[in-house]
Amino acid sequence: MARRKKGSHGWVYFLWGMNGIVIVGLLSAFAFYVTNQRTFAANGSVETSPFNPTRELPPTSYFLPTLTPNPNYTPPVFETSTAFILENGPRPTIIGFSLAGRPIELYTFGAGEREYLIVAGIHGGYEWNTIALANELITHINEHPEVIATDATLYIIRNMNPDGEARAHGVDGRVNNNGVDLNRNFPAENWTAEWDRDGCWIYRPTTGGLYAGSEPETRTVMSFIKAHKIEAMISYHSAALGVFPGGVPWEEPSKRLAKALSKVTRYPYPPFDTGCEYTGTLADWAVENGVGAAVDMELRTHSNTDFDENLKALKVLLSFMP
Asked: Nearest-5° angle of CA 299, CA 304, CA 308?
């Protein structure tokens, strides 16, 4: 019988031990990365896109994280051309980038201490007329700067979901490129990834995100709001349900703003109740994080901007004190 060499097991144990250390290290690094991402989301940190344009995504294709998980997924990057150009007016500030690398643009009017905010296009191409309304308001204010009082500043984020708007003007354009409904992705206290679809929008699969604040578009807006003292804001939607105050339950300043807006626009308040439970919305998160009053306001249809009514709404917004 051949004799076993003395100490031959030692090298085996050593190599297995090294393998174990490497595996533990990788798992620890992954756990740290996930925790870091959630912390960034909670703090409203902004991710920018350093990439160059490479390829196009099929127009109705997007990634649904909770239905088809793919940790190795790399988002495509697109040309970042600007569809709206204001002639002889201020250039927009780019405050962040979409998942696909498209810029999220901010227009600023006035320089007063009282700050107000309008957000359009959170549901992209499904509610494209909110983006068209923002463009009309930007053009009008540029031509009539006296609309903004000397003690006020108005910010307009004209298209929060540029990837959805580029994908389609219709149901396929509602979500971002991760298949997330951005108006359910904000880390409000009632955020949830899934919800009872009874009475809610059901035309395509969607989620509230892998976690609250998981999307770069959401974090861009969060970071901007946290950097300013916003007196009041309107998040535009379509169509027809009315004016929804922020807060769970609705907060009093937001209810006052909703009533004042309803009075001049004739949009319903209280809004129509379809039985849908709204979770993780921008308006709810905003009032939880220092915005004086916030509403989701729905245009009457998916095709018209209701420009005249919303000029009156702009006047109400700019004079509102929480």
From this structure: 75
Which pLDDT belongs to residue 87?
79
Q: Which of left, alpha, beta for 125 (phi over 0: left; psi -120 to 50: alpha)?
A: alpha
Compute how many other C-beta atoms are within 10 angstroms of the C-beta atom of residue 285: 27
Q: Which amino acid is at 79?
A: E
Distance CA 38, CA 33 (A): 9
pLDDT at 101: 95
Q: What's the angle, vertex CA 221, arms to CA 215 and CA 224, rounded to 5?
A: 135
What pLDDT shows up at residue 36?
A: 57
Q: Which of 101, 102, 130, 103 is nearest to 118 (CA)?
A: 130
| Element spanning 128, H or E | helix 128-143
To the nearest 10°, the Cα dihedral for 262, 265, 271, 277?
-110
pLDDT in tens, 51-89: 333 334 444 445 554 444 444 444 444 443 446 888 788
The distance between the two most distant Cα atoms of the chain, rounded to a whole number of Å, is 102
User: To which residue do tokens 């004739």 refer?
Assistant: 266
Ordered structural domains, the chain, with CATH: 93-319 (3.40.630.10)
- State the DSSP code for 186: S
Token pair for residue 148? 């903004």
Residue 133 near residue 236, CB atoms below 8 Å: yes
Which stretches of 189-274 are assigned E, i.e. beta strand?
230-238, 243-245
Residue 100: closest CA among 158, 169, 51 = 51
CB-CB neighbours of 116 under 10 Å: 26
- Give the list of residues 6+ apart from residue 106 with CB closer than 8 angstroms, or none: 92, 93, 94, 95, 155, 156, 157, 224
Q: What is the rounded distance in angstroms from the CA atom of residue 135 to the CA atom of residue 90?
A: 13
Q: Distance (Å, rounded) from C-alpha 30 to C-alpha 187? A: 22
Residue 89 pLDDT: 84
Distance CA 296, CA 236 (A): 6
Low-confidence ranges of the chain (pLDDT < 70): 1-83
pLDDT at 56: 42
